[in-house]
Design brief:
Elements (H helix, E strand, L loop, with lengths): L11 H6 L4 E3 L9 E5 L1 H6 L4 H7 L2 H8 L10 E3 L3 E3 L2 E3 L7 E8 L5 E7 L14 E2 H16 L6 E13 L3 E11 L5 H9 L3 H15 L9 H26 L1 E2 L21 E2 L23 H20 L3 H31 L13 H9 L6 H17 L4 H13 L2 H7 L13 H15 L8 H10 L7 H14 L3 H10 L18 H6 L7
Antiparallel strand pairs: 1-3, 2-9, 4-5, 6-7, 7-10, 8-10, 9-10, 11-12
Helix pairs in contact: 5-17, 5-18, 6-7, 6-9, 7-9, 8-9, 8-10, 9-10, 10-12, 10-16, 13-14, 13-16, 17-18
The structure holds adenosine monophosphate (AMP) and magnesium ion (MG).
The site of adenosine monophosphate (AMP) has 18 residues, from loops.
């Protein structure tokens, strides 16, 4: 069945790369579809008119988002990819339960993929059933909408439809299909798939495609090896920026396999992810991450490791001499920690209210910017890193909630000294508030350097800036679980909808959202485990 409404599809992946890059495949029918979630603002961003939106709220939406009826112009394809999972290489993963429907140009002129997840078995399913359950798909909605509202690049959820089917996991669960929107679904693992088969020509095609899609400015570089290297550098820089944002939000992805790392720099695949509560660099929540490979503090190192795997796929395109290719790729990998640290520092300075202290950005091209990064033009970098590092040490030592601590630092800027002691919500987070004093004094000195006010002065503008940099609301793990349990066990979507509303305005202190701000009791967090949900 074809639907009367549609997106304006323009499917370059299928058209330009063709069948070697995936398998054309149809979604499985759903016996009794229902629409559980529709992202109206995202649908509008994708170019759907309000009349179409209204239609999507009815039967048309059920049919479309369950996979029962394809929109005109969709050319569903199960994409091929490989991946390193927990360090071990699988030469063939691929869309085992996902399908790329096609691409649309959104209202901002950006090309976006529209894809299903949970739409049935494909030739890449191996032993899996190709299905997804309501809980994990609504979880993707909560996490990705939260990241998006926090300003962190992410794939997004357009809709979730219940299928009316039961899927068998540890328990029998209601089935669902997620419709996901992404800048693209190109992964490190997509390159690995062809490199592992020594299909250098296809790696080249993929790189050209990725450049056209994500780094069109690089097409002007005439030398193919230089262009490939510049592309690799651009991917690495996007990942450095993304990882810094994750770290500054206390986000733990949980399964940073190379098939879950995008070329676009968007966060993707929210299985066993979680936000940290009490600050702990070694925090791990995933039930399958026994060795802590994907622990909070390990994430930037893993990102670099994954980028090294991407580099390996590109070596034949970078230089004919393997040794020389390795050297050139290594230059980029060696620059990664510096890019990450600079991005982390930028975010931390915003969260500390240190405005106007960043070295000015280069207006030169990618290469120029790299050179600028390599030179130390930031005399305060070391001192500010120490200030942020000592703050985090304090949170660690006193087991303080990461999100609340950053947020309530604004209270300390809002009022002058005497009031601060009374009004601040920061001090009560510490069992021994006096332990905080020496650090607060240092911080105030540094703020005073930035805005030439006395160290003790109230700084309402700084407080407001801090509140724009550090959210009040994150997806608290126990709140997420509560909402998903109500939806999955009882078909009650109200807690999910209520939590989603709060997550979509994370920086406002809306009084109704107060219940979503509190961490779970420490005992609960200590036992909290996330599951892949596959
Ligand atoms: P993920 O853990 O979701 O990143 O998936 C890793 C790989 O397993 C991908 O190739 C997925 O398509 C595949 N996969 C995960 N769950 C299923 C499932 N229920 N049925 C088939 N394939 C799956
Ligand atoms: Mg995945």
């Amino acid at each position: 069945m074809l639907l009367p409404i549609s997106f304006s599809f323009d499917n370059t992946y299928v058209r330009q790369l063709g069948d070697g890059f995936g398998v054309r495949w149809a979604p499985a029918p759903a016996p009794a579809p229902s629409l559980l979630f529709l992202n109206r603002s995202l649908a509008a961003e994708l170019g759907l008119e309000s009349t179409v939106l209204r239609a999507l709220e009815g039967q048309v939406g059920c049919d479309l988002f369950s996979g029962n009826a394809l929109p005109a112009g969709a050319e569903p394809l199960a994409q091929a990819y490989a991946g390193h999972q927990f360090g071990g290489f699988s030469p063939q993963l691929g869309d085992g339960r996902a399908l790329l429907l096609g691409e649309v140009i959104d209202r901002h002129g950006q090309r976006r993929d529209i894809a299903f997840k949970g739409s049935g078995r494909t030739p890449f399913s191996r032993g899996g059933d190709g299905k997804a359950a309501v809980g994990p798909m609504l979880r993707e909605v909560l996490i990705s909408e939260s990241l998006h509202a926090l300003g962190i690049p992410t794939t997004r959820a357009l809709a979730v439809a219940g299928t009316g089917e039961r899927v068998v996991r540890e328990q029998v669960l209601p089935g669902a299909v997620l419709t996901r929107v992404a800048a693209s679904h190109l992964r490190v693992g997509t390159f690995q798939y062809f490199a592992a088969r020594r299909e250098t020509e296809r790696v080249r095609q993929l790189a050209d495609y990725a450049i056209a899609r994500h780094d069109p400015n690089l097409r002007d570089i005439d030398s193919a090896p230089e262009r490939t290297l510049a592309f690799f550098r651009a991917v690495a820089r996007r990942q450095a920026a993304l990882l810094a944002q994750w770290m500054n939000a206390g986000f733990i992805h949980g399964v940073m396999n190379t098939d879950n790392m995008t070329i676009s720099g968007e966060s993707i695949d929210f299985g066993p992810c979680a936000f940290m509560e009490a600050y702990h660099p070694e925090a791990v929540f995933s039930s399958i991450d026994h060795g802590g490979r994907y622990a909070y503090a390990n994430q930037p190192h893993i990102a670099r490791w994954n980028l090294a795997r991407l580099a390996e796929t590109l070596l034949p395109l970078i230089d004919e001499t393997p040794q020389r290719a390795v050297e050139r790729a290594t230059e980029v990998l060696d620059a990664f920690p510096g890019w990450f640290e600079a991005a982390l520092r930028r975010g931390q300075r915003a969260k500390l209210g240190l405005v106007g202290v960043e070295p000015s950005a280069s207006t030169a091209g990618a290469r120029g910017a790299d050179l600028l990064d390599a030179v130390d033009v930031d005399p305060q970098a070391e001192a500010d890193d120490a200030l942020a590092g000592d703050w985090l040490d304090l949170l660690h030592q006193h087991r303080v909630d990461f999100t609340q601590a950053w947020r309530f630092l604004a209270d300390e800027a809002a009022s002058s000294d005497a009031d601060a002691v009374r009004a601040s919500r920061l001090r009560p987070l510490f069992a021994e508030p006096d332990a905080l004093e020496p650090w607060l004094a240092r911080w105030r000195q540094r703020l005073a350097q930035c805005d030439s006010q006395a160290p003790a002065a109230a700084r309402p503008e700084t407080a407001a800036a801090l509140r724009r940099a550090s959210p009040w609301i994150i997806p608290r793990n126990h709140r997420v679980e509560e909402a998903l349990a109500a939806a999955s066990d009882a078909g009650n979507l109200a807690p999910f909808e209520r939590l989603l509303q709060a997550l979509q305005r994370p920086f406002d202190e809306h009084p109704d959202d107060a219940p979503f701000t509190k961490p779970a009791p420490a005992e609960v967090t200590a036992c909290y485990r996330t599951f892949c949900g596959t």
